[in-house]
Design brief:
Layout lengths: L1 H13 L2 H30 L7 H18 L3 E4 L10 E3 L3 E4 L4 E4 L11 E2 L7 E4 L3 E10 L4 E10 L9 E9 L6 E10 L5 E6 L9 E8 L2 E11 L5 E9 L4 E4 L3 E13 L8 H21 L2 H15 L3 E6 L8 H13 L12 H12 L24 H17 L3 H5 L2 H13 L1 E3 L4 E3 L9 E9 L2 E9 L5 E8 L7 E5 L7 E3 L6 E4 L1 E4 L5 E4 L2 H7 L7 E4 H8 L5 H26 L11 H16 L1
Antiparallel strand pairs: 1-7, 2-3, 3-4, 4-5, 6-11, 7-8, 8-9, 9-10, 10-16, 11-15, 12-13, 13-14, 14-16, 17-20, 18-19, 19-27, 20-21, 21-22, 22-25, 23-24, 23-27, 26-28
Helix pairs in contact: 6-10
């Protein structure tokens, strides 16, 4: 009643000219505010698209270069506007560099399956900062395929208002993939302004009571920084750590409209867990070994080291998982999958990249990588949220995740892959994601037919000397089908495949670009959805050994599994609707057609007479 009265008074309020103007102005402002959008809004009201004024505008241009990589799922980045609570690390299984906390983690064992679980008090990152008062904006990127952490800082000295004059400091942090003891920090400074700038170079000094000490020494007429320390472990034992680094000047001068580039090479040597009685002897051995390796690196070119590192990471990511279409909240996103893969690989050693590995041992590891018998047994891990966590917020959680993955792979028949290090870990995780398993004679895809409403691809699956790509795709009607393609290596081997039940003749898989498609058939009882083998006769004989009751198309299986609500429910609903309409019809009939019903139409004359009679009666 109150609302009705207020609405009746609204036309009177809008009859005022000032009220109409105010309403029109408010509507125009809302339209203008919506059109600007978030980024333009900030520029219009605050002066730049990102906090920091000119520095923020400069940073926005730098981030634009990363956007295409992130959109392709090759990395993640954190900016002042989009901050991620995610550790930005670079590692190789022997060492792990946490860039945000500036801490070095080391492993005390060289065995595959072990991880850099010991946090040291050493700070590996050198700080480079512009002297004087300044405004600064920073962003960081984790680049999966290159195994690196990129940092960019845009610094605007006091008095500069244009983003074109901002000093840009780009840094790249690398724990070398094929040289497990090597850590590299690359620095590139761009000064587009009309005046020279000076930057301070500093490192975090060990705090009082620290277990690390630092000294400056000479190595082949070059100054180096030697840091040594220890990490206490259980049973009163300790792990010794020695870091030898190229010394950088404490101040960098960059002339007007010029650039500066330099690289800081570091070598990290660690011991196994030792007793305190072997302290001096072990320290001496580590120092000599670290200095010798640094001397060899200083004679090489940094570009060659970087190319070698990047190629090793790209070879690892030949395999992987690609999420294409996700239709539920329980399936991990592409970003979650790629971040998890990167964290596990960064914590894994890579014995196949070790130059000291014997030919016999290398052949054994490659053989286990190409055919991991009985891996991966059990159900697929796609929906295991503890193995593919959406959020990892610390280096300690990364190492816990690595331990969980290692234990899972070992218990599911993948011990040989764990022994192969990072390459084996990648294979095991890809196999586990989709429920792929190697048996004595074939590779089988045993995904749950009920979860094939998601579209994804598993690439780079090693089978003998070939690489197999397997994808679960959806057609125009949303029905799933399987797509298989093969990337043959130097020695092509014939591969054959057949769908569930193998009732149809197996198809030879070729390296055609279009690949091969297979329908999703579901058997009763449930058996794998696809078989791949080098033995044609094995697949032909397989159909006689499965002993199936029925083979259904996927849509038939889903219809049988989820038939909908029972007939009695729908009959009850239809009965209630019918009874309601009958009752409504009876009310209307009694109102207008029953005894004592009111006339449906009244003439205007009769209506006026009735009104006049009422008025006379009221007057009397």
């Amino acid at each position: 009643m109150w609302l009705q009265q207020r609405l009746k008074g609204l036309p009177g309020l809008l009859s005022s000219s000032w009220a109409r103007r105010l309403l029109i102005g408010l509507l125009l402002f809302l339209i203008f505010y919506w059109y600007l959008g978030a980024e333009r809004r900030w520029r219009f009201f605050g002066g730049s698209a990102m906090p920091g004024g000119a520095a923020g505008q400069c940073l926005l241009a730098e981030i634009h270069r990363w956007k295409s990589l992130v959109d392709r799922g090759e990395g993640i980045y954190s900016t002042p506007q989009e901050q991620l609570d995610t550790p930005f690390v670079s590692g190789n299984g022997h060492i792990l560099i946490d860039i945000d906390s500036n801490r070095l983690w080391v492993a005390s064992s060289s065995q595959p399956g072990s991880a850099p679980v010991h946090q040291t008090e050493y700070s590996p990152r050198l700080g480079v900062h512009l002297e004087g008062k300044r405004a600064e904006a920073q962003a960081t990127m984790l680049w999966f395929r290159k195994g690196a952490v990129l940092s960019v800082r845009c610094t605007s000295p006091a008095g500069l208002q244009s983003s074109r004059d901002c000093i840009t400091i780009r840094e790249e942090f690398i724990a070398h993939r094929s040289r497990p003891n090597v850590y590299l920090q690359r620095i590139h400074i761009n000064n587009p302004s009309d005046r020279a700038v000076s930057l301070d170079v500093s490192s975090e000094n060990p705090s009082f009571g620290s277990k690390f000490s630092t000294s400056v020494e000479k190595l082949e007429d070059k100054d180096i920084v030697l840091s040594s320390g220890r990490v206490p472990v259980e049973n009163n034992r300790m792990v010794l750590v020695v870091v030898v680094s190229k010394k950088l000047n404490s101040r960098i001068q960059v002339s007007a409209k010029s650039e500066y580039t330099d690289s800081i090479l570091s070598v990290v040597w660690t011991s196994e867990s030792i007793e305190s009685s072997k302290l001096e002897e072990t320290f001496s051995t580590l120092r000599e070994g670290a200095k010798k390796e640094l001397g060899e690196l200083l004679r090489a070119t940094v570009d060659d080291l970087v190319v070698d590192h990047q190629q090793a990471w790209m070879d690892l990511f030949i395999s992987g998982v690609e999420m294409r279409k996700i239709t539920d909240s329980h399936t991990p996103s592409s970003r979650t999958v790629n971040t998890t893969l990167y964290y596990i690989l960064s914590s894994s050693m890579a014995p196949l990249l070790d130059r000291r590995l014997s030919g016999e041992e290398r052949a054994r590891l490659e053989s286990s990588l190409n055919y991991a018998d009985h891996c991966f047994s059990g159900h697929a891990t796609m929906h295991a949220e503890n193995l593919w966590p959406e959020r990892v917020s610390s280096t300690a959680q990364i190492l816990q995740l690595f331990t969980l993955w290692t234990l899972t792979l070992q218990k599911r028949g993948c011990k040989v892959l764990v022994a192969a290090g990072a390459h084996g870990a990648m294979q095991g995780m890809v196999l586990s994601f989709g429920g792929l398993q190697f048996t004595e004679n074939h590779l089988q895809f045993q995904a749950d037919p009920d979860v094939l409403h998601n579209s994804y691809a598993l690439r780079g699956i090693h089978y003998n000397q070939d690489l197999i790509n397997l994808a679960v795709l959806l057609d125009m009607e949303g029905k799933p089908f399987l797509h298989v393609s093969v990337k043959q290596q130097e020695k092509p081997v014939k591969l054959y495949a057949c769908e569930a039940g193998c009732l149809n003749e197996p198809v030879e898989l070729t390296s055609e670009i279009k690949g091969h498609t297979f329908p999703v058939m579901v058997t009763q009882p449930i058996t794998p959805l696809l078989y791949i083998s080098t033995d044609l006769r094995h697949l032909q004989d397989l159909r006689h050994t499965l002993h199936l009751k029925a083979i259904l198309a996927h849509e038939e299986h889903m219809a049988n599994r989820y038939p909908g609500l029972p007939f009695l429910f729908w009959f009850s609903v239809a009965s209630l609707i019918t009874l309601f309409h009958l009752f409504l019809f009876k009310l209307i009939y009694n109102e207008y057609c029953g005894p004592g019903a009111k006339p449906l139409f009244r003439s205007k004359v009769a209506s006026k007479r009735e009104d006049g009679c009422h008025d006379t009666g009221n007057a009397a």
